[in-house]
Design a protein that fits this description.
six-stranded mixed beta sheet; alpha+beta; single chain; 319 residues
């Protein structure tokens, strides 16, 4: 989990001005609108916050990140380092009603975390790492590949929640990327299928503690279109990936669709309001920096102090 290089230039920003810019941005671009919180709806988000706990962010950076997280009721966070200083700094900037839950560290010394408003969301009893027993690994196979599934590099983190009458489990993932080499793409595809296979097993098992499973997080999925191997593996057993309103990617530099929120047809899909989007904070923040240092310098500052991923959200009914 190496940090991004720290920008070599100095840039000071006014926190109040940048918070105002974030809040005003959906008014400037109506397709970036995020619904207001309401009693009978749940706003769920996922955000890969680059190298959280490794990079030396400013106190004001954590305040900007917390501002955006506070717009949602429940947020899955990826790239939380074994050093918890980053996620704890964000938590400290949120209202006291927000609780924090995190996993142990796995590959790359990464944890996954959940931040949630405990007035709106109650944590249920099932929490832990996704585990596929060795006897079941043979079931994880994809067309066109003879590669054996070796298990997850960064084990997905499961937590169960309740909001109103909506009982559900979130499976927080940060799947293997590696490189564009075929062997690494095979492994990434296998990890994606393993998530879909496990979620399908839980969804159909009458003994499941909570059968409504929503895998979400960083799937390292380049394109949400037929023919993409990662996309096909994710959807192969019935998981659905709703299109985003603005049709922009969640990865800032490439506009890839790495981050996703998925669910099965049935009760969860019935609760989905159809509202989902990526919030491109890079269009709102640090506009004077963009004017003075456009392109790579601006992106280097953004990915070091905020992230190289944009948050993705979806809304569900809870009544």
């Amino acid at each position: 989990m190496p940090p991004f290089p720290k920008p070599r230039f100095a840039y000071d920003y006014d926190l109040d001005r940048e918070v105002a810019a974030l809040r005003n941005y959906p008014r400037e671009k109506s397709d970036r609108r995020i619904p207001r919180k309401s009693r009978d709806k749940l706003l769920v988000a996922t955000w890969n916050i680059a190298n959280l706990g490794v990079q030396d962010r400013l106190d004001s950076d954590y305040a900007l990140i917390a501002e955006m997280i506070g717009w949602f009721d429940l947020v899955a966070v990826q790239e939380v380092n074994d050093n918890l200083r980053g996620i704890e700094a964000i938590h400290s900037k949120l209202p006291a009603r927000y609780d924090l839950l995190f996993s142990d560290a796995s590959g790359n010394q990464e944890r996954q975390a959940f931040l949630y408003d405990d007035r709106k969301v109650s944590r249920l009893k099932e929490v832990g790492r996704l585990s596929i027993p060795p006897s079941q690994l043979r079931n994880i196979k994809v067309p066109g590949s003879t590669t054996a599934f070796p298990g997850f590099d960064r084990g997905p983190y499961l937590a169960s929640f309740e909001s109103g009458s909506f009982r559900f489990s979130l499976l927080n993932v940060h799947l293997f990327y590696g490189s564009p080499d075929p062997v690494d793409v095979d492994r990434r595809t296998l990890e994606t299928f393993a998530v879909a296979w496990w979620a399908d097993q839980k969804h159909r098992d009458a003994r499941s503690y909570v059968p409504e499973i929503l895998p979400l997080g960083d799937f390292n999925l380049p394109k949400t279109e037929p023919g993409d191997r990662i996309y096909e593996a994710l959807k192969s057993l019935g998981l659905e990936v709703p299109p985003h309103t603005s049709q922009i990617g969640s990865a800032i530099a490439s506009d890839s669709y790495y981050d996703q929120i998925a669910f099965f047809p049935g009760p969860t899909k019935g609760r989905f309001t159809g509202a989902t989007n990526v919030f491109d904070f890079d269009g709102a923040l640090f506009r004077d920096l963009w004017q003075s240092r456009p392109g790579s310098p601006f992106l280097s500052y953004l990915r070091y102090h905020i992230s190289d991923h944009r948050p993705l959200w979806a809304e569900f009914q809870t009544g």
